[in-house]
Amino acid sequence: MELMLEQMPIVIRSLNVGFLQTLKLFAVTLLGAVPLGLVIAFGSMSRFRPLSYITKIIVWIIRGTPLMIQLLIIYYFPGLVLGKPIWGGGEAGRFLAASCSFIFNYACYFSEIYRGGIQSVPVGQEEAGLVLGMTRSQIFFKVTLLQMIKRIVPPMSNEIITLVKDTSLARIIALQEIIWAGQAFMKGSQGISGAIWPLFFTAVYYLIFSGILTVLLGRLEKKLDYFR
Amino acid sequence: MAILEVEHICKSFEKTEVLKDISFSLEEGQVLSIIGSSGSGKTTLLRCLNFLERPDSGIIRVCGETLFDSGNPASLQESEIRKKRLHFGLVFQSFNLFPQYTALGNVMLAKELLAREQPDYKARKKEIQEEIRVLAEELLKQMGLSDRMHNYPHQLSGGQCQRVAIARALALKPDILCFDEPTSALDPELTGEVLKVMKELAEQKTTMIIVTHEMAFARDVASHVIFMDDGYILEQGTPSQVFEHSHEERTKQFLSRFTNG
Amino acid sequence: MKKLMAMMVAGVMTAAMVTGCGGGSGTPADAPAETVAPSEDGSAEDANAEATDTESGQEEAAVSGDSDLEYVKEKGTLVVGITDFEPMDYKDESGSWIGFDADMASAFAESLGVSVEFVEIDWDNKIMELDGKTIDCVWNGMTLTDEVMSAMECSNAYCNNAQIVIVSADKADQYQDVESLSDLTFAVEAGSAGEKEVTSLGLNFTPVKAQSDALMEVAAGTSDAAVIDSLMAAAMVGEGTGYENLTYTVGLNSEEYGVGFRKGSDLAAALNEFFAASYADGSMTETAEKYGVQAAVIAQ
Fold this sequence. Notes:
Helices cover 79% and strands 0% of the residues of chain A. Chain A is mostly helical.
């Protein structure tokens, strides 16, 4: 116990650095995947058949394979098969590769949620907009979008909470997120070795962060309660 | 001159012919009631007039302007259709109010969006918005909803919702206001308030086309009645011609169900 | 599009096999070498092309092995793949990498006239990192096993090590010879030299992801014993560490550390020369003394 208190400041500092990386990956993924998911959703709903087929196949592949494998492919494939290590070996390159994998993966999941949300808005809403002389984009942004958002908030909250924890997968390409930072003390790092508790302590970070997100998303849900 | 002329409209879904050679005309300030059993093509006809469906053939003219001519491809363009729709207003059976806007917001929305296309919108933004708001409030007052303007659709009764929907359609000042079974989704005790509003509109010489199952209302308010059966116009004329002196056996059969029932 | 997808799928398979081979016990040692070979050819050619492009006046690079040294010199950085492994590679208080391996790697890079960059990698993916050119060498107390030597171009051995058995301190006196180990369950790092030892002794074992995980298994009681590197055990087990209740008993074998490069790379030969020179002038021993590993250093 005494030893643990002694190690605490070093461990916390190290976990904070790792958690910052986790947060960065989380934020970048969300910022990228939320709009990209909408683009993919429109692609899969397109009336131009080839486009919707291709989009659906891509979504199937991305959702049908483990994110861990996708990370490995995106990071190592260029160097291994094409002979061009486009990401480089440094931390920035690994982060970029991880961001690309996560954004693409999550955009595919989001796209399916969006599609369900858009399709669950009654056709009558669009028709009402049309007979009032609104353009299709006006109908989407002024009528459909908010109703869709209201419907997708609960499933999106689920995915977002999952994303928080999924970021830990990025350590397969040696992105030093919080679990990596916690594990380092088991092997030995900064004079602390054989310490198991930092790894378990990372759970506290996840718990607090997902708690904050749950509250925020719950508020959003409540905010949209004013209409049905 | 007739405000609306419809000539030889045909429409099929896949292999089913829903509208078969429909022609009629309507004078300004008149009220046209379309009656007939379910599946006779009444609703499809209204949807064709509002360009929610595209007729396979035929011509639609409003105030002498050809809005739709199946023989003239230029009239079929999507971008053109949006403007042409504004000649018509449509009140749906299921209201289709926008749930995230208040009653007032529902009435104002389309008009506001349309106003943005005016060249002087930026300069007179506040003024224009104020005008639109005053107009919307007046319409809702006319519908007897002055104390409900700031309620959301889910806080209103069905009858109140339908009156908001009517105000919403009127806000764009359409030449012809169409109703698609406006009282069918309402509880019986709520139909009265909607029919009363429609009757007032008729008295103010609003040109209307009403698809309805309310036979008594059609007879009282309409200046012209069309009876549709299996995609055809089987009979048309003044209410007394259709209701009391019908020539066709189908018409008599149909009407007897209402008078006896 | 379809073709690209097919290629990607094939790529995954290759990648999965390369990583998988490190972990699976009893996988033929030559498998990784075979799967790696085609991509290695590709990257070597590519490096060749780059070299001739920029040094147009020079004669053509004759053998593909020439190119790796040129490739590193040209980009001006030697990227060293490491893990946090005291006393070989670890961070000092200011956050820069030190240790016997880290200091030697910096000196080697200096001798080549390039800068050094340390990159923490996932140990499982070291071959993929090398062949994918995201790192240029693995320099991290790596035991020279048959698998390692067939998949990488390795330097001469520079440091001795042993695989030793870790048990909880209160039971240590019962397990002081190899014969007594047969009724224990072991945790060993997948693909490590320790795994090889327990396999050849026919002992019961569970492969885990890292040596540190193996220690945790013993501490948590989910395994009776672990086999890890003696250099690591010295730093991590016993008084003053997080594993005060563990201790080491039997040494199973002795082994040697080496540095790994891409298959066919001429950097291995360059490093051997550097090792010989720095052993001769005493600088290697001096560095080893700094980290208390001088007794383990092998004469070059």
